[in-house]
Amino acid sequence: MTSTVPALGTRTAEGSALQAVLLDMDGTLVDTEGFWWDVETEVFASLGHTLDDSWRHVVVGGPMTRSAGFLIEATGADITLAELSVLLNDGFEERIGRDLPLMPGAARLLAELSTHEIPTALVSASHRRIIDRVLKSLGPHHFALTVAGDEVPRTKPHPDPYLAAAAGLGVDPARCAVVEDTATGVAAAEAAGCHVVAVPSVAPITPAARRTVVASLEEVDLTFLRGLMTQMR
């Protein structure tokens, strides 16, 4: 976990209940959910197995222990979870080294949050080695804190990553806005007591209490996020 927490005076804009913004990475800020599936397909093909496309909705957004474990069980592949994790991380790192497209609206949102000194954390189920590689493209200066999936006792869909981010920033989870793209991530954020903006990437997500669903990050700005706090008290 890395942290450069801003001074207390910058934490909350006057008149706003919003204390921090916590952002997922894959499929939310960077268009990489498809990359993971491509890498999983390639790795299992090298092991002599073909992945069923319907499994994509099972593994999307989940921690590697869950998604890789599911694929091993579903295919019967002769490989350990530890061995598969190395292959998947290696393949993904090579893939993002060739191309790492940002989601529409991501660069603008990060710049706006930085300009207004809103404490912002990157909270991902990806491992630290992957997060640090992606940060080179996103800009590490945009984040006061980053939380990786291999740095918490339990990753998404458990609340631990978002609780750790809020604690690291010194803010109340109930006054944090979380932006997520999968049901797994949404479940983690809601379990932590945060307000959630869902921007579905692979599978649909329905609106609910304390959860707003939008089609793109282009619909999300600081005014929108501050408004969530007042609308959902």
UniProtKB/TrEMBL annotation:
GO molecular function terms attached to this record: hydrolase activity
Record has Transmembrane helix as a keyword: no
Keyword field contains Metal-binding: no
Keyword terms: Hydrolase
InterPro entries reported in the protein's UniProt record: HAD-like_sf, HAD-SF_hydro_IA, HAD_sf, PGP-like_dom2
Gene3D superfamilies in alphabetical order: HAD superfamily/HAD-like (3.40.50.1000), Putative phosphatase, domain 2 (1.10.150.240)
Pfam family, one: Hydrolase
Stated name of the protein: HAD family hydrolase
Native species: Streptomyces salinarius
